[in-house]
Amino acid sequence: MSRKAEPFARDADLPWEPAGAGIVRKVLTYDDGVMMVRVRFEAGAIGTPHSHPHVQCSLVESGVFDVTISGKTERLGAGDSFLVPPDAVHGAVNVEPGVLLDVFTPMRNDFV
């Protein structure tokens, strides 16, 4: 059953899905224009460098990440955020176990 455009989502009701070695994600709320996703990383997990046509803005909920966007790397911790322009190559290396909250526009059809 699709949750697309549902106004509310309860975290406890949503499943974690595999998203790579040591990484799981949970699709939260979304419609055609925007999507919010929580991504949990185990220590040392690597978000492989990739690109997509979506704008992505992300908040570090917890943990420490080395985030690389278009060849520039910054170490970010809880409360820090980053913006990924469309088609920019980006990735993250988890330094301490943590969670990212990602927002994409438009929504990621490949996630549902």
Automatic annotation (TrEMBL):
InterPro entries: Bacilysin_H2HPP_isomerase, Cupin_2, KdgF, RmlC-like_jellyroll, RmlC_Cupin_sf
Domain Cupin type-2 residues, every copy: 38-104
Classification via Gene3D superfamilies: Jelly Rolls
Pfam families: Cupin_2
Domain of life the protein comes from: Bacteria
UniProt feature coiled coil, ranges: none
PANTHER family documented for this protein: H2HPP ISOMERASE
Protein name in UniProt: Cupin domain-containing protein
Protein's organism: Bosea caraganae
